[in-house]
Structure formats: structure tokens, C-alpha cells
Amino acid sequence: MSRATDGPHPHPLTPAELPAGDEWWWRCGQCTTPVQGGAASLAAHRRTVHDPRRDYGDCRIPITVRLDLPL
Length: 71
Fold this sequence. Notes:
The chain is about 15% helix and about 10% strand. By secondary structure, the protein is an alpha+beta fold. Strands 1-2 form a two-stranded antiparallel ribbon.
């Protein structure tokens, strides 16, 4: 079971906590997952999900299917 760390939460929890000009909703450019919480949360998502040094990163492989249909 995980336990919250001591101190303040490292990412904004409400739109009111965002810095001026930051957007509440982002979409990750690599996996198109919607990320809530501004640029700080998007950066955390990229660090944890798409970090090549970690074993549990996004390991999806694009698949190309070629269909030869008669004309």
C-alpha cells in the first residue's frame, strides 16, 4: 500500500492553484492520454510513463497492416 509523502502536493490539485496562463487539461503528445493538472502534471506524466530508463514505460509498438484489395 502506498503512502502520501510529507509536505505539500507537488502538483496543482485545482484549476485555481495553476500559475497564470497554464491550462488545466493537457493531452500527452506521445500516448494521447488526457492529463489533468497543468504543465507540472504533464511533466510528471512524461517522467514516469515515458522515461526510457524505467521498465514500466509506454511499450506499445505501432502496427502497420497492409491490405491488398482487388480493384
